[in-house]
Amino acid sequence: MSLTNKQERTEGKKQYHIHLKPGDIGKYVLLPGDPARADRVAKYLDDAELKADHREHRTFTGFYKGVKISVTSTGMGCPSASIAAEELINIGVECLIRIGSTAALQPEPKIGDLIVSTGSMKNEGTSKFYVPDVFPAVPDFELTRTILDTTAEMAEELGYNYHYGINATDDAFYGEDEAWLKKLSDLGILNVEMESSAIYTVCHKRKKRGAMISAVSGNLVTNDVIYETENEGLIKGWENEIKVVLEAIYRFEQRNLS
């Protein structure tokens, strides 16, 4: 019996979920969860063009200092994020950088701070289809180092605080009870979000580069959370992380061309 090889059937063609084809994207793609944040990124790109808007996946492509860059929203959680990553790789992406929101699990990070991920604790089911549980989920070192260096250099100019460390990737937003959050915090986990470990795993398997920078939406240890009103600090954090990551991509591209 011959079983379908999904990668072979879809590589280099118009993609089923993201509705993109080869040539629609740059080799660098930013991955916010919320489609509305794809619009937020697009305003920083020259000649930004909407390439697709299907399901949770909205994509713009444009240029930053001459570098072709795209943004594709993933939706929430590892399953849809891994699908977006796989299909973007199928049509030529080389570097996938998650941008978005995260909740802090240590006392220091405040709303609007930026956090650069150095690895992810895999508390989700998607990566188990790719690698054993004991296999680590880590971002690309060179790309992450460039993002972290750029974050540090732009902090004074843009007026934010930043942190770096290991995050957790969880599946169930409302399943994170106090005992679970305390366990993560006691392990020294810096923050928690819902997509990065799957993105790192897909990138490793497909021999591409993955990374993440995120803005702090709230602190689950100090109980500094905002659920019912507009989170102005987080919005500023989104804007700052976009500025940082675009500049980091430009620097990374220049370094690799020289």
Automatic annotation (TrEMBL):
Record InterPro entries? Nucleoside_phosphorylase_CS, Nucleoside_phosphorylase_d, Nucleoside_phosphorylase_sf
Which reaction is this enzyme known to catalyze? uridine + phosphate = alpha-D-ribose 1-phosphate + uracil
GO molecular function ontology, one term from the record: uridine phosphorylase activity
Example GO biological process:
nucleoside catabolic process
Asked if the record carries the keyword Manganese, the reply is no
Instruction: Report if keyword Transferase is assigned.
Output: yes
What general EC class does the enzyme of this chain belong to? transferase
* Domain Nucleoside phosphorylase, residue spans: 27-222
The Enzyme Commission number assigned here is 2.4.2.3
Q: Name one GO cellular component term.
A: cytosol
Keywords, sorted A to Z: Glycosyltransferase, Transferase
Family to which this protein belongs? Belongs to the PNP/UDP phosphorylase family.
| Record-given protein name | Uridine phosphorylase
This protein's species is Halanaerobium kushneri
